[in-house]
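Subject: Re: docking follow-up (NAP)

Dear J.,

Thanks for your patience while I sorted out the input files. As discussed at Tuesday's group meeting, I've set up the holo structure prediction with NAP included as the bound ligand rather than trying to dock it afterwards. The sequence and the ligand SMILES I used are pasted below, so you can double-check that they match what you have on your end before we go further.
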Amino acid sequence: MISQPNPSTYKAVRYDQFGGTDVYYIADVPMLSPEPGQALVRIKAAGINPGETAIRIGTFAMQYPSTFPSGQGSDFAGIIESVGTDVGQFAEGDEVIGFTNNRRSQAQYITVDVSQLIHRPANVSWEQGGSLFVAGTTAYAGVAVLNLQPGELVVVSGAAGGVGSLAVQLAKNKGAEVIGLASPANHDWLRQKGVTPVAYGGNTGQAIRDAVRGRPIAAFFDTFGHGYVDLALELGVPKARINTIIDFAAAAKYGVNTAGNTEGANADVMRDLAGQINDGTLEFIVERTYPLAQVKAAYDELDNRHTHGKLVLLP
Ligand SMILES: NC(=O)c1ccc[n+]([C@@H]2O[C@H](COP(=O)([O-])OP(=O)(O)OC[C@H]3O[C@@H](n4cnc5c(N)ncnc54)[C@H](OP(=O)(O)O)[C@@H]3O)[C@@H](O)[C@H]2O)c1
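The structure tokens for the complex came back this morning:
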């Protein structure tokens, strides 16, 4: 087979200022070439995450400064086009799942260190692999810090979202009994996973008490914020067994855990998660895909905050 030369430019999501989804555009940017220890990957799928919205609107401008034009995205899966020297077991043509911390994955190509790649297992789709990193590693680290024991009760808020839908299953797989807070439309899916669904809104605390019928709640994984850490404390959950991935003010106030993407961000965790999806232990839902050019529409949907699983861009 005669391989085609790479184009001199490729398409990538960019924005030039903080703002709403109108700031997005697709730019033609110069082609990359891999340095030693790196691979050039042609991206087949790239996930989107609420944290990118927070960065785009400027919420994290102090903690995680932006430079413009800014690229976007941490999750991706694709095919290695070429490699630099010293890339170990990776080679041209390999199908890979990867991650970047450089806001660059929503694009047709990326160069990354091969330590940020794993090989794609056959039963993990491009869309699943391409959206695994942020949600997967966050759910993994957030469940791990709770140290769940078989039979213990754990409550997960945002139980059907990108992080929550994985977290409830990881907690179940540790033998915990899981209460999942979600809209009624997601209750059947939660029941299928062996999770007891509870609707939020109204008196959520009482609804949880009714569901647990007097048994102690050992742990709480908050993926939504807006008062769930306070609720966990009201329900008698010890601080050491509460984890929030979004309410950092409550975490600072009460000293609860904030284990998430930073703690889980490595290839070993990615390999473990991809293996569980591959063998069917973990269901990873991709709700919808969008062409790269429809990045604005994809984030408009994400920003409604009712995604079940993941939304994925296809470059
Ligand atoms: N710290 C970290 O490392 C880290 C990493 C990843 C994500 N995050 C943050 O964690 C959060 C979750 O991320 P994600 O990707 O899972 O988001 P997502 O996919 O957008 O999840 C949205 C979920 O929130 C639920 N929800 C909406 N309104 C709610 C309410 N009033 N009360 C309770 N739940 C409500 C929705 O439930 P229904 O559809 O059932 O209504 C939906 O399941 C985001 O804020 C994100 O920025 C942090």
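A couple of observations from a first look. Residues 238 and 314 are 43 Å apart (CA to CA). The chain is about 30% helix and 25% strand.

Let me know if you'd like me to rerun anything.

Best regards,
T.
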